[in-house]
Specification:
single chain; alpha+beta; four-stranded antiparallel beta sheet; 11 helices
Length: 273
């Protein structure tokens, strides 16, 4: 998103979000600014130095306000909530992962602390949990199917035409949440996504095929009543790298791994930097 001239109402909304504690880099992306100074200038224009000081105080307790798929972060966050997220009650919601780098990323963006705890069982990884509190966000997430006990009832995620441009980052959140990147038996990079919901898996397959033009996607059901969407087509993997894992963001382990495996398998280090 490049720079665009904002209306007075948009500028005032930007300033309000800044004062409420929204991270500067989130505002830069949302409103199309390339520098932090551009944000600061708008804040001083409408609120002066007092607004900046007030924002510093609010930043200490900033959590998240999910108001829909309006930027890359919200899209990525929705993907995580659809998979590893859960609703606690009408005010609280959270995400729990074994990958700490992803939770650290969420913590840095939202300025919300996360907690790590030991899971029971031999060889079980530590788990990392981040909890948010915002009644309006809980209501908004429900519009996308993120409701209590959603595991088996997830289905088609309703997206507007405007929101569809963020599909790659919704997918990134989904793969980081309940997916994996791996090598096949013959060394080719591949990925899969698992879900207890058949409807959700087939919706995801449709999105890959109709919106990102993937081919050769396969769906299977495991003995544990999990549905799995698989892909090892190398043209698809290249699209995944170009459109979904296009930059360090969120779970950097998968970002690095898929690119490394693709380079090694295709034996051409010039394909990707």
């Amino acid at each position: 998103m490049g720079y665009q001239k904002l209306t007075k109402e948009q500028e005032q909304q930007l300033v309000q979000e800044y004062i409420e504690g929204t991270p500067v880099h989130v505002l830069m992306e949302k409103y199309g600014f390339k520098t932090k100074k551009s944000i600061a200038d708008k804040v001083k224009k409408y609120g002066g130095e007092n607004a900046i000081e007030e924002a510093k105080k609010n930043r200490k307790t900033y959590s998240i306000a999910f108001d829909g798929v309006t930027n890359q972060f919200n899209a990525y966050f929705l993907g995580l909530m659809l998979t590893d997220g859960y609703i606690i009650d009408e005010n609280k919601f959270g995400i729990e992962l074994t990958d700490e780098d992803c939770i650290q990323f969420l913590s840095e963006v939202t300025q919300k602390k996360y907690h790590t705890y030991e899971a029971t069982g031999l060889g079980v990884k530590k788990r990392h949990r981040i909890i948010f509190s915002d009644r309006q966000s809980v209501k908004k997430l429900a519009e996308y199917g993120v409701v209590p006990n959603k595991t088996k009832i997830l289905g088609k995620v309703p997206l507007s035409l405007e929101e569809e441009k963020f599909i790659p980052y919704i997918i990134r959140g989904i793969i980081d949440g309940d997916g994996s990147v791996f090598k096949t038996g013959y060394g080719a990079p591949a990925f899969y996504v698992c879900s207890a919901s058949e409807n959700f898996i087939y919706w995801l397959k449709q999105i890959f095929e109709e919106k990102l033009f993937f081919q050769d996607m396969s769906v299977s059901k495991s003995s544990k009543d999990l549905w799995r969407l698989d892909c090892a087509n190398q043209r698809n993997i290249l699209k995944l790298i170009a459109l979904v894992y296009d930059k360090p963001y969120g779970m950097n382990r998968k970002y690095s791994l898929i690119r490394e495996m693709f380079r090694d398998y295709n034996r051409d280090n010039l394909l990707l930097s």
